[in-house]
Amino acid sequence: MSWLPSERVLSIQSHVVFGYVGGKAAVFPLQCLGYDVDVVNTVNFSNHAGYGRSGGTKTSADELRQIFEAMEQNELLRPARILTGYIPGGEALSAVKELVAKLKHQKPTIMYLLDPVMGDAGRLYVSPDVVPVYRAMLPLATIITPNWFEVEVLTEIKLKDLSSLQKALEILHTRYQVPNVVISSIPLTPWLWSALPPSIRPENEKSHLICLASSLPTPQVPSSSTSVVHAQCVPLFPGYFSGVGDLFSSLLLAHFHPDEHPQNLTANCLSEAASQALTKTHAILQITHGQALTLPEDERLPSDDELDKAEPLRRTRRMRGRELALIRGQDILRGVNIRSLREMRIWRDFWATQ
Fold first, then answer.
1. Phi and psi dihedrals of 262, rounded to 5?
2. How do 180-187 and 143-144 pair as beta strands?
3. What is the Cα–Cα distance from 171 to 147, expressed in whole angstroms?
4. Which of 234, 227, 229, 281 is nearest to 254 (CA)?
5. Can you tell me the distance from the alpha carbon of 183 to that of 246, in angstroms, rounded to the nearest whole number?
């Protein structure tokens, strides 16, 4: 096994009683891969917001600081890796930023994956005051895993063509000094499909997402002054699934081993980790989708805002059947019976037209 037996992960993100989002989607996969995980819940909710109704509380900044202080006093803050996800407000996020900065100062080699969970499909679902805090946190990160919308929010660049994508990555790498950027999901629009090398481009741009990994050269792997870019496309499953980004980020962190050298000469440690995370996440989604197709008809009804509002349990039944099948797929998480990887492939001429 490639992990260190003593490695601990400090996971700071949301908690739900029912279902698999936030920490519920991230902690179990990390444990399956041999990591001890210390869990701090930024919210305690009954279920995720997609159900339309939920109960519970948000953890305040003071409560987070009390938890961090007690852990420090008891010498329990000993992570080798940090993972942060959904934190709904700026004050609570600032408390997390203070902790990460302190841990990075005490141990500069600590690995930090920052998932800037802010929104999707063009809208924020957190308080807007988190945005400047996230920007201030970016230089602390080893890896960040925004989706396309979160890239736009962080960089203030609308992703509309290859030039804008290049500019956004340049801002993240140069202005914010993030060495490793993985854009977990970008819709494969016509401009992006046509820009892709043939080795990455699917036959049809419809119903696909692209995962893109961009890493700066390291002293061990020198290159040019620009980043090395890898990408891979995956087909979309119909319907809405929650917790996919949380699962992907946890797997990416688990498989990221910067001291190891990939056998594939065109790969690097980031693309190798992304290949593992993408493969396993897609396989879990495949099981989840298959499971949803076997449900009774009243649990497979299509989305309809008007009907869902009139009958809230209509939405509940649909959401309930689409919770990630992590337990059924735990062998996948551990890497059992995975016959081939969805390998991230190098995009050699990504910067050529800059």
1. -60, 145
2. parallel
3. 16
4. 281
5. 13
At 122-171, the pLDDT tens digits run: 889 999 999 999 999 999 999 999 999 999 999 999 999 999 999 999 99
Let me know the angle formed at the C-alpha of 283 by 278 and 284, rounded to the nearest 5 degrees: 100
Helical residues (DSSP H) of the chain, grouped into ranges: 23-32, 61-73, 90-106, 130-137, 148-155, 162-170, 190-195, 244-255, 269-293, 305-310, 312-320, 330-334
Q: In which band, very low, low, confident or very high, does the pLDDT at 5 lie, cut at 50, 70 and 90?
A: very low
Q: Provide the terminal-to-terminal Cα distance of the chain, rounded to the nearest Å.
A: 41
> Are 283 and 338 spatial neighbours (Cβ–Cβ below 8 Å)?
yes
Q: Where are the domains of the chain?
A: 8-346
Residue 130 in tokens: 């988190």
Cβ neighbours of residue 200 under 8 Å, at least 6 residues apart? Answer: 210, 231, 232, 233, 345, 347
Rg (CA), the chain: 20
Please list the helix, strand and coil fractions of the chain in percent, rounded to the nearest 5, in that order: 40, 20, 40
Return d(Cα 266, Cα 90) in angstroms, integer.
40
CB atoms within 10 A of CB 187: 16
As a whole number of angstroms, the distance between CA 116 and CA 131 comes to 9
The CB density around residue 217, as the number of other CB atoms within 10 Å, is 15
Percent of the chain at pLDDT > 70 equals 95
Spatial contact of 112 and 251, defined as CB atoms under 8 Å apart: no
Q: What is the pLDDT of residues 181-236, one digit of tens each?
A: 999 999 999 999 999 999 999 987 678 999 999 999 865 444 445 899 999 999 98
Could you give the strand order of the β-sheet that contains 345-346, starting from the edge strand earlier in sequence? 56-58, 36-45, 8-16, 81-84, 111-114, 143-144, 180-187, 208-215, 228-235, 345-346
Task: Give the β-pairing of 119-120 and 123-124.
Answer: antiparallel
Burial, 204: exposed, middle or buried (Cβ in 10 Å; 0-12, 13-18, 19+)? exposed
3.90.1150.10, 2.60.120.620, 3.30.470.20, 3.40.1190.20: CATH of 8-346: 3.40.1190.20
